[in-house]
Amino acid sequence: MNRITGVLKLHSRDKWSWIYIPAIVLFSSFVVNLIVSFLFMNQEDMYTGGLTSIVIYLFVAGIIVVGKTFPFAIGMSIRRIDYFIGSAIIGMISSAFFTSLIFLFAQLEKQTNGWGTRLHFFHFPYVNDGTLLEQFILYMILFLNMFFLGFLIASYSRRFGRKGMFIGAMAFLLIGSIAVFLVHHFEAWGSIFSWFASQTAVQIAYWLVPFTLLYLLGSYRMLRRAVI
Amino acid sequence: MKNVIEVKQLNKSYGKFNAIHDTSFTMQADKIYGLLGRNGAGKTTLMKMITAQIFPTSGDLKVFGGNPYENANVLSQICFIKESQKYPDHYNILDVLDVSKSIFPNWDVDFSRLLIEDFNLPLKRRIKKLSRGMLSAVGIVIGLASRAPLTIFDEPYLGLDAVSRGLFYDHLMEDYVKHPRTVILSTHLIDEVSNLLEHILVIDNGKLIIDQDAEELRGKAFTVTGQTSKVEAFLIGKETVHREPFGGLLSATVIRNQNGSDQKQAEANGLEISPVSLQQLIVHLTSGKSEQKGAMAK
């Protein structure tokens, strides 16, 4: 158990990657949008996609964390499972931190009628339609999903190297193409779109949970056999 | 005595290349071992298997009585400092020390501070900005201050100056006496460490060719020098490790026979006798020039 604490400590030494950089990314985007919304203040609502920056950032964080810390951790005789659990916990803490932050700002944005300028940066129709709890869960699931997807890709690359990445990417493209072809062939687009339209935002988020669990399981299996 | 490491018929191959071939040996607790061999002989591969950083292709490997792979009990007793150890980019020396402190159960904070001072390491400097020698010194500080029951140094002093190397030897010996533990030292600078080593393993081309007590090994051979004809006459019927002519003289290193009578014989013939250094002996044995390489391993 104390080895997991060691891994947490190992990650927590990197406040820049976990807190400062994502916060800067998020809020610089927000500030720019806010300024723009002041400059073009009119009666229309202004929507931006600035929030996706943080979603992408967590995906990237998942990718870079393995390369940055795995060789060091294993070199310091930490077990692979301890590294995995410790890193997963850090990913969850980071996701929870940004979920809370965005949740808070979304409520503020709603209360202040879009910061007085009808800006929609944190709070959107559809996405924020559910109850407060549902909104919170939605962001949490989304962030975790992105982080662990990145983590899975990085673990796969650790395990199988450059050649493995190439083969994996090819296989993914192939499967994707076949899937698109089949959907097209059976003219299933309509029913897929209507299914998505029938779901609330949080219901779609719930569908990400099994995928996230699969990513977790997959990355653990990769790291278990990864060498340095 | 308790065996810390037990290796039986260990193999590691990469495709068709055998990095470690059918290697068996044991290491006992609280001794200092030298793991020697040329570049690419398989030293690092062997140590990485012992610390479960890579996996053996076949064979049996026990460290502290268990398989080291994912074994918290075993791994928590190991500190492996390798020349190629990677650190997270943004870390400074202080970060490395703090993390080490929370990872190694026997970590001694005061000792680590003393070592940092002795090696003149700038605590706040980023690992990335350190010189090669300083980087090696950081590894040495971790290796010593972790006081792990099994401490492995793989080429610990790349780029380190003579003063710092001396410091390393002194601290290692001093701390080893106070806190006995098993130390494996892998290095090219054999003569510098030959006084520290109690037991020597030599790997060549993935095979263990020597596994012997250091004292015994040193006494195994001696060098005779004299006129070529006299030396040649003396060498008949003896196992010669190496011969080196210069001018009308010939210097040859021979394996001592059972009762030591050959040394007396050489003295009687007016040949000059000198002890062979460990480095010379091992260089001879691994340079591929020795005439009867296998004989030493017996």
Q: Main attributes?
A:
heterodimer, A: 228 residues, mainly alpha, two-stranded parallel sheet, globular, B: 298 residues, alpha/beta, Rossmann fold, Alpha-Beta Plaits, six-stranded mixed sheet, four-stranded antiparallel sheet, 30% strand, disordered C terminus
Write the topology of this structure:
The complex is a heterodimer of chains A (228) and B (298).
Chain A: H1 2-12, H2 15-39, E1 46-47, H3 52-75, H4 80-111, H5 114-118, E2 119-120, H6 132-185, H7 189-198, H8 201-224
Parallel strand pairs in A: 1-2
Chain B: E1 3-14, E2 17-28, E3 32-37, H1 43-50, E4 58-63, H2 72-75, E5 78-82, H3 93-103, H4 109-118, H5 132-145, E6 150-154, H6 162-178, E7 182-186, H7 190-193, E8 199-204, E9 207-213, H8 214-218, E10 221-227, H9 228-235, E11 240-246, E12 249-255, H10 261-268, E13 272-275, H11 278-286
Parallel strand pairs in B: 3-7, 3-8, 5-6, 6-7
Antiparallel strand pairs in B: 1-2, 1-4, 8-9, 10-12, 10-13, 11-12
Helix pairs in contact in B: 4-5
Q: How would you describe this structure to a colleague?
A:
The complex is a heterodimer of chains A (228) and B (298). Chain A is an all-alpha fold. Chain A is 81% helix and 2% strand. In chain A, strands 1-2 form a two-stranded parallel sheet. Chain B has two domains: 3-215, 3-Layer(aba) Sandwich (Rossmann fold); 219-297, Alpha-Beta Plaits (2-Layer Sandwich), CATH 3.30.70. Helices cover 33% and strands 30% of the residues of chain B. Chain B is built from eleven helices and 13 strands. In chain B, strand 11 (240-246) and strand 12 (249-255) form a beta hairpin. In chain B, helix 4 runs antiparallel to helix 5. The model of chain B is unreliable at 289-298 (pLDDT under 50). Chain A binds chain B through residues 2-3, 5-6, 9-10, 13-14, 16-17, 68-69, 71-72, 74-82, 224-225, 227-228, and chain B through 48, 51, 53-55, 70-72, 75-76, 78-80, 82, 85-91, 95, 98-100, 102-105, 148.
